[in-house]
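Before drawing any conclusions, I looked closely at one protein's amino acid sequence and its backbone structure tokens, quoted below without any editing.
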Amino acid sequence: MSVSGGVGASFDPDRIAGLRGHASPGTGASRGGSWVRAAVVILGFVGALYVIEGIDMVLSYDLPAGSAGQLDAAGIEPREVSGLDGILWAPLLHGGWEHLFANTLPLLVLGFLVLLSGIGRGIAATAIIWVIAGIGTWLTGSTGSVHVGASSIVFGWLTYLICRGWFARNVGQIVVGLVILVFYGSMLWGVLPSDPRISWQGHLFGAVGGVLAGWVLSSDERRRRRGASVGRAVPTR
């Protein structure tokens, strides 16, 4: 996949909001508000996952123990046309409370950090990860399987946080990425095939989506660096 260099500025939602006067970066009030907004959005998203799992439990109360929930059938079915809509729904569904509990803490921590740099930018990164993870899983998943769970988003947020600073040459983001790598880097082993009940394909393509999101959303900074480099005066003797 290739992304043209002209996409960057118009694809940066927070830059656009700033130009329209909807954001005033650099003020203490703005920084404080960004923390609150990021916390509210990620708590709302995770709360919605719990509501969805609760609905699934109610709908599936008469199913045998250990069987998939009613809503889980809406997950990704690899290479089935009827399973394409699972790309949209899969990250919202989980194979039981234990599955959701395992994803909750990394969703809260990584999601908060992603959204902290801007709600629009965080949502754009998440959308890229969501689509890449879903398409990759649909293309490569095992025949007859159904893939659900927000872990694909978790892996995407993880790689996005690790790589975005390097793409943007932003020292603060690089430091955050290194800290995240220390605490959560061992999760990256999850992109390798292991337990057949675990969607390593979702993990792998979620991680790929995170790297792509970091590259796409840093295009503004890359273009600014190129412009600064081209605009330097050539020394004369």
